[in-house]
Amino acid sequence: MSDQSVVQHIPLPEGSIQKQTTTMNLGPTHPATHGVFQNVLELNGETIVDAEQTVGYIHRAFEKLAERRPLYQVTPITDRLNYCSSPINNMGWHMTCEKLLGVQTPKRVDYLRVIIMELARITDHLICNSIVGVDTGAFTGFLYVMQYRELVYEIYEEVCGSRLTTNIGRIGGFERDFNDIAFQKLEKFLKEYPVVLKEFENLFNRNRIFMERTQGGGAISAERALAYSFTGPNLRAAGVDYDVRVAKPYSSYEDFEFDIPVGTTGDNYDRFMVRNGEMWQSLRIIEQAYRKVQDMKGTENDVYHADVPEYYLPEKKDVYTKMEALIWHFKIIMGEIDIPKGEVYHAVEGGNGELGYYLISDGGRTPYRLHFRRPCFIYYQAYPELVKGSMLSDAIVTLSSLNLIAGELDA
Amino acid sequence: MALTNDTIKEQLNTKFGADQLQWDESSDILTVVIPRELNLKVLQFLFDEPALGFRFLTDLCAVHYPDNAGGELAVVYHLHNLVENVRLRLKLFAPIEKPDVYTASNIFAGANWMERETYDFFGVNFVGHPNLRRILNVDEMDYFPLRKEYPLEDQTRIDKDDEMFGRGGSYN
Fold first, then answer.
1. Could you state, in order of their start, the residue ranges of all structural domains in chain A?
2. Which pLDDT does position B170 carry in this prediction?
3. Do B78 and A227 lie within an 8 Å CB cutoff?
4. What is the ipTM for the molecules in this complex?
């Protein structure tokens, strides 16, 4: 921008205020923030000079709450972190517990988990990308793909009974086996979704207006992204191919073949493209996992949880007829199981990046300390750097392409 | 050359002296406890030394151990060498009366908010932090809620008036 700004040309009358910029609140309840957090923007005309964020509006003290809950009661807390992909959070938490307890899960459980986690990743990226579309003025794509998020939610419903805050799975596996309807819906999704995603891409990828609006805005270099501890699609858009699924495979991700899409400039358009690419890879993974599950024969095909009587609830019919099962049932529900001493850090690739669980147990019945590494919280601090010097309307696109989820921001 | 735990240990032991550092390999990630005043030097060394290259700060948080006299607050750094894909956990202990720890925000830009969060919940005073204010809690709060002396409410208490919580009075 030239020094000849309009503001400086206006001769201010004597005694008027000297401040030549405008302060504007974007949020906490602005529709463009898609969540409850505030940006105080300092504007020169429509150009952003400075920005400061306020977070914490929906802070719910999860880390404190977790300190008096037995392990299985922490799962519903993790739902409410990134609620666009809560199954990933649930699975990550179960795997953290399994790591601490030394539980080995059967292959079928791993593959079923992979199916659910990748479905969750698709819904997460789907929301983010279609919202980028909405913020650039294309509402059609958003409404068009939403029915497939609905289909994924119906699959969750078949598996665990709920849709948004899923509380899916248990320590050691799943609460029940996938039923036929779940698999039928999964087949329907695998058959129909690629067509929809292709059409969604046709709508945006080479759309001149969309490209003009997103390219070059909110860019970050790979060095700065690493300095800000970016992870996930936002880091990969800057050109760093770090993905927890590859760097430290969990839940048998090493059995699958998939690519890691990366960008080059780290701008809004690259973030959009990386997320789109990841949806295609997720579809590939789900197809492979589903085939592997289908190929399982005999007793292997019936397994849906590991044998961990201290943490996995016994079957209801056993609870009514067997004394041991009844005892375990009560002990688990009342949280009377002592957790072994230990300290683990486990990370999964969440919708927004490396979602880490740092769990310390002192041998009591609840975690001594549980810390969530929330990717959203960590990369949101780079926002002023991303938007300084850009126009207000570009800052809003940047906000949505970062995929900020208030639940994950505030814990 | 692959970066092994032995290399990390050897490099740090030679630089800072083996008696200054306590190593622990029993947990999932190689853990080292460092003296509180050395944290910046160690982090900078781990960052700069080409053979080590821990240039990614994964996570920063604190833990409160009320029984550990003189070092009640532990600050835990999770570092990651993304090239070699090796993780390292760095710990230091600070006394609760004067929990002064040098800020890492000059090495890692991302440490800024992580330290603010740690200050917010544990009161660790990060010396040299550009903007050490509360972040998730309200600014007027005058205590550090994740410390162990603040237990959650006893769920079995009966002295509460249920009517105030929308449950009617009939349960008392």
1. 6-54, 62-410
2. 52
3. no
4. 0.90
Distance CA A240, CA A264 (A): 9
Smallest Cα distance from A321 to chain B, Å:
31
**Residue A369 three-state SS:** strand
Interface test with A, best of B113, B143, B156 (most A CBs within 10 A): B113
Give yes or no for A198 touching B (CB within 8 A).
no
What does the alpha-carbon distance between residue B47 and residue B56 come to, in Å, rounded to a whole number? 8
Q: What is the pLDDT of residue A66?
A: 92
- Full set of structural domains in chain B with CATH: 5-147 (3.30.460.80)
Cβ atoms A275, A282 nearer than 8 A: no
B137–A59 CB contact, under 8 Å: yes
CA distance B172 to B153: 18
Angle between helices A107-135 and A268-295 (to 10 degrees): 150
Min Cα distance A213 → chain B (Å) is: 28
Integer Cα distance of A103 and A332 in angstroms: 16
Please name the residue of chain A whose CA is at the shortest distance from the CA of residue B57.
A229
Answer whether A101 touches B (CB < 8 Å): no
Which of A13-22, A175-184, A200-209, A366-375 shows the lowest per-residue confidence on average (mean pLDDT)?
A13-22
CATH code for the structural domain at A62-410? 1.10.645.10
Count the residues in chain B.
Answer: 172
